[in-house]
């Protein structure tokens, strides 16, 4: 098992301030939502906002405070069962598909829980003795990185819940314009070849699944300097992409037929009875809006991304190609727009060992049946993404902010 | 098709007052619950409290106001889709299993909806011209009876939702003691025999399924003068009732095995990890309490009721036996304790015709695959029950306040 | 518990000859089928031909020989597990949906099993002492009645299996013309009213569920003197019967939509790609044939029968009406064409008690969730039907030879 | 798209003889089975023996004869629908889970089909003109390789079907002893490091998924020189392997719990009621036998293989490690015992392109959600395996002859 990697080395006040800032951001994201909104769970894979708020607090309690704050008293001993997500080593768990049934504890009780945990973490940051500090610092940083992951999930999950409501209510009235891409012509950029090193090493936080840094051998390839846009994806649809079996992986084609997929999640075709219109519309955190051809296409499954690439005479990059190219060629929109599906299954890196202890369950036990996404999205908290980051989801998942960038073989 | 039966004949102010009283009672029942509690749906068969509050208002809008209040403007034209339960004739419907996803409209918006509809109904009651009055009166009364049915469902449904919460929160701190039976020895009372008339006729409200009054031929039988108690049912459990196939109907035995039933819904066996205790405990609107041997057993499926009766060397009464006996012999606890499963499938009475129009869907289209329950429960609003009332649920349903009374053949 | 009713009183040789005849008929029905055909199970509710042949033999072994032939040695002690259908009192059972996996024992081994059992039953019939004879006679007769029920099921089940084969092979090249009705105009015949006795009593075999004979009170009604024809049912289809919610019970309408029912089972619409044709075609034991407008409509679910009756301005008869009318008015096609759905749930008769012992599971434990069919079909072995016979199936069942006869209220 | 790779270059008579030999071997494998046995389908993933016999013939018909034998007349034009497995480009398909319903065509008709197709292929091999010969040769070879894959599947599928029969019949009375391993001590052998070439290139048949040959960068590792034995796996079980969450991938642990896995498929624990015994027993083509500690463990899912490796303080090799080591170090039991799960997801090789035309669906469209197995098994036809072969199955699949070989990091 690996030790936790060194987090960003800093002085204690800086980490305390960062802790306060990150924790406050979660509440800010939840603020536009009513207590009812924060309790709902629209599908087993999505969690209620309130659950995210509580689970991230439980994580500090179970991973940081239980080990390093000797006098700490859990807010409520029964809540570990409710807010443990999947850590077998940390006790029993409420069934995931039933998180939405937890009307109690109430939202205000969860707010009190957060305050209780925050105060204890701040106390710990102020009082930990120097010998314990490196471990405390690393675990608090992990708790914050974890919280940031849930900040994005909070948005993806509430978006899906609002989409299930026939009224199609908006999460927020206004949205930053950051998702609109410049209408760049696409350039095919040659990436590094041969035995190329990828993965995390050295200073700065990274998850265990980004290690160890190691070499992969890359054949000559080119990678698109920008993302695929909604306008381009609409051409794929118009050309019968969702009706052409030969473009699809077998499991994807089965889903197209059984789920009757005809467009990305959150797209409404012209004339759709949910909100009749003469043009394509796209539902987002801002509500329903006309399709913006220049925006990056989002909310694709891996299957759709791969089918689009096939249709375009290209393919998806591997994660090694993506990471190697991200470090060298001048690619646009690596971060802050949409996560980018790669053609790489989420396998362990050579020499990978999970962290020691319960946090070893954080990433390692999910390394089968999933695909890697790279980059980060507009919903990713600023500063959270990095080029070595390995996000992962099953190939059928569509409710993430997931799009694609093309690649192709040859120099 | 039948015309609506005459409701209780009364002066307009009396109906207006009754309308206000019944409508207020729904809000009173919801009052102990937070907005979060009122939004949750714990299984497809149960509906959120908020949905009950809105649906009963929609019913007045769609059935009374749309036809008889010409200037009435619906509160929100899109809400018919959300709050229509199952009326094919009244437009499209949100899928029943997804009622819990309706965080919008918010609870306060639903309160405003109720006020809007109530005002319009009160206006109508004040202004309807004499020619329209009989129909208005009948439909408003139907709306109130409908609301009362949902008042009971509101309680059954929230009880189930709270049960699904590992914290086992109580709906209300205190509960009336009305469910405790006097510890009567059981007497077998002979019921009326031969060609006996049952069913509703004459004055007073009744649902269409209680008509027409007609004869059924009853063989000699005896019926218990009181309900089966929790203490008696506990003996059935202790005697291996849930492990003895020969006591059960085939479908019931399959459920015992696949669902691992070992006791009524809401009973916790001694030592159950959800709330360890040395004795049986029963969850109710008041929370978890030690089993009260003298209380009527409740929350049984038909299968359990029938298996208990078989074990006791008896049987369930038919609905005709129940109704005939209720009218003559001095039976205890006919109303206000628990609904009583009968051995009668929910078939139409001879000569039955549903009401004309959309309200013809109220009862008639459900007349297959269900069993009749008679009496009424502690959760039934006072004044709502009557001896001709035909409640009905599928034989596997356990989340109602459903118990049993025994019967046997012979004089 | 009831004792077995007296079977047809006869001399021993007559029963021995009847036993040989009935048992041979099962083999004759299977004869057109290959060993492969006889092994297949096309859905959980249907059983393989070979399983029918073996199960009926096991029934003699377990119910007759085990109790009354002291020296009898079971053909193979392990086969009880394979061929016990649903008798909890008679040991463990192979899961019903997996009967088609039993390629072993082979068909020829099952033939040997039948011969082994037949020889032992014949020996018993020849040697049973007079004291035991009444019970032996009754149980052998029960075994034969049971076998006859499975003879019909053998045909219904293989028909369904052949239907699932895209080649639509025929069970038999030629079929008797008995299913064609004379093109009679329909007459509405008044049935007996008042306290009318129904049910079995006296000499002759009957199942326990036909007893006791008892009175039911019948309101004035009329019943059609003939069955509904395919031509009439085609008019219902052409008039949009399968698209009109108001004609259907709620559960039936849900099935129409989820299963996309548009016609009876085994009907192919004009142009169906399975076997293109300009007209309706109907699949039967004889293969695919053009729809015969004068034949009785068959292979309906209860829901379809009830919807048709509603469309026709009529209703289904209750089972008491059917039986009372069958005994008095001159109705056509009571037997030998199609089973006739009634509007009666399969509830126990007043005073009903199942037979004593394991055979008490024969009928009684299925008395919930099913509807009664009366009469008999062209697939019923001659002599097996009678007017008091209560056949029963769930309301969604369509693979039986099930049609309908109309009734209506009033004198 | 790739062209078909050159097959083994040979003279025509050699290929004709090989064709006759391979085709005859399929019939020989089916010979111990009755027509009933050959028709059964025990789960959707498995196919009936008869279907394998017919499908492999259809493959020659659709892929070879349709394109290259101009006068060829299909045996029955309707059979393409029945026996096309998954080729979207080659027309409609009977649903996979319903292959067991195809009692028609009969086994003897399928035998006639095989003879018809074989004759046409032999004619083609004798008559193809030199210009067409390379393509004909390549496609016939593909048909034979395809047939060989189905020969192994025929055995895996019938083994599963026989396992589902409570009688636990044997496929064959005697089995070769080849699966017994010499009781070797395990040696950890260092494999090649750095930029190592893997994949197929040059002469000899290979599937498209084995190309192109390319480099992968291997970190230092060691690989076990022999397979894991049943005795070793039994120690894992005895040590609580199936009860220790920390050894398992998350999805695997969920299956252990929901499917109640406690041993490999086909293992019966001491005392199992299916066949009581004091020791472990293993079901195989030879029937039930006492566990042989020296035999390679087989019929593992990927999850079990990975959990065992974790328990053993090791890991599974990647497919590149396996292939590189197979070519250099002296590993035992690479072929002919059990397929060996690797830690590699079944992703396309860099530069991979599927074959042109319908046969492009052979492998490429399955490249997601599966894991690679290397080597070959005792059920693989002799001569079919090779070191570059990429077998693949979903991680939960247990009915293949699948075991494991350990690996570990470091020099």
TrEMBL record, chains A, B, C, D:
> Which stretches make up the Sulfatase-modifying factor enzyme-like domain?
188-326, 330-408
Q: Which UniProt keywords apply?
A: Iron, Oxidoreductase
An example GO biological process term is: ergothioneine biosynthetic process
Keyword Oxidoreductase included in the entry's annotation: yes
Gene3D superfamilies linked: paralog of FGE (formylglycine-generating enzyme) (3.90.1580.10)
Pathway assignment reads: Amino-acid biosynthesis; ergothioneine biosynthesis
Residue intervals of the DinB-like domain: 21-153
Q: What is this protein called?
A: Ergothioneine biosynthesis protein EgtB
The protein's organism comes out as Ramlibacter monticola
Gene name per UniProt: egtB
